[in-house]
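Good morning C.,

I know you're traveling, so I'll keep this short. The sequence:
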Amino acid sequence: MSGCTAPRSALLREPSRIESRIDALQGSLRGLGKATDPEEARRVAQTAVADSLKLAEDYRVATPALWHNLLIRTGMKDRGLCYHWTEDLMKRLQALNLKTYQLHWGVAYKGSDLREHNSVVITALSQPFDAGLVLDPWRNSGDLYWAAVRKDEYPWEPLPPDQW
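The tokens, ready to paste straight into the viewer:
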């Protein structure tokens, strides 16, 4: 039945699609503040989009994300819960030594066994957390999702850096 279609992972890795996603994220990042550096926005966008796909490969992700979570909970997979994605993407973004952006660890429904969700949030330097963008690779199993914190479906709050 699917002999004439490419696998989902191949479609996500189409170079023109990746470049389009990087361009779109760069634009969203630039929109966070006039003092942001366009080259820094480009590096963040390239890292976030490409490394999210790489993490999906590393985790050998099964879709959808909730199914992958179940496989982890039953011991069939090792990594790929939302906080794993956040931890790994955060390390990659921190390595960029950003000057005009600030990284935050966002958490929604903190402490809830079934609802807690974690993700990277990025703001322009010295801007409030809720003026940032959620960078969420977990939600679409490595196909990076981003949205304004204020407009996302999750009620994001910053996790203090000493709890990362």
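Safe travels,
E.
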